[in-house]
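Hi V.,

You were right to ask for the full record rather than a summary. Here it is.
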Amino acid sequence: MKAKKQLTFFNQKSKLMTCFQYLYRMRLLPLLFLFSCQNSTPSDSTTDQVQEDPTEEFSSSPRSADPLAQADLEDDNAPQDQASTDTPEESPQERDVAPQQDRTPPPPPRREDPEPQAPAKQDDGNQELINELKELGDAEKQEMLQEKSAAEAAGARRLGLSVFQRGEDNEAAGDRDMRTKSQSSLLSAQRAYRDAKSDYRQATKEAEKMAALEGKAQKAQTAMESQKQRIQGSQQELNQSSKYKEAQNLESLARQQYARNEFDKAQNSFTQAKDLFSQVPDEVKRNRAASGAKQANPPATAKTTPQPQQRNPAADAQRAEAERKRLAERRIKILQNSYKTNLETNNMNGLISGKFISRQEQSGWSQFFKGVKDLSIKIEQNRFNIGKNRADVNFVVRMSYVNKSNGKQTENRFNRKWRLVEDNNNWRLQEASPGN
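Predicted structure:
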């Protein structure tokens, strides 16, 4: 019997300690202390009532609403009813705390972590779908890159076709979507690559058509320059020729059209300029004849005394040589203008056919043209060394362009050396190399 009483006492004490720990965590201990101080001197009737039946408060407490708590309470009070006279008296503080302990809600049950589970079959299916979409996107990109290479080989980038630029924009959009690696983005990447492939295929067709027109314009330009070089006469006589002035204006217009990739218009302008240059020699002869007639038939009012003309063969030879060199310089400058135009238009075919660059320089210039735009050329500081049938010229090429990688305006310069030979009064370029 005594052991049962001790067991009941320890059970109540354990519950009381649990209550104190909960109140301490909830920071309600000061309120309990004030409540205990107010009830530290209970009345005699209350004390007697508690002493007469100490289980009344437990049986009437709100905790009785909990079936589990009620069962524990009945187990604790069962031996106490059999020997109520031997139960030790409780202090008023203990009696007041016990109901407070029962009124506090029990702590929430501890939530156990879920056990790890194998990934669902649906996730595996999604990952497989993503991998499959990525493979399809990579395949579309490879086909697109093949079309891009064909367009570049046809000259679409060099010609600056808008459809080629649109293809590059679609390609960049596809690359961005491929990095996201979601189903929607991978599908969007495939569409972008297909659009880029279509743009590059169209750019190839346009570039091939423009390349054919460009070739015709180049032939017309070469024919015009050859006709221009065959013109005989001093600069003063050429300046007096109206045909020569008109041909020069058409030549300037043709070069501007060529730079804008208007090859069909440039071809017509070069052809018209050639026809006008072919008419210049006849006009120069007529002007000479008219000038000679005026000198032979002076006005009647003019009184002139004929002067014997003294000829100096050495002086005549010097004047003839100076005139020959002057004409050679003018024709070499015409070739320099053609070199300038081919550089500004990124025309690799014209540079190669005109022998303006060597075979070793072709790859370097091709890479350079891909990385720049708005190229402008100035040729300066000509140093001519003209012989009987050969000529050497050193000059400086000054370039101004926009770097595509950073968008900055850049200037550069380099030296160039040409060796030319004369063939039937027509100077042609034999060798081009870096200058000193």
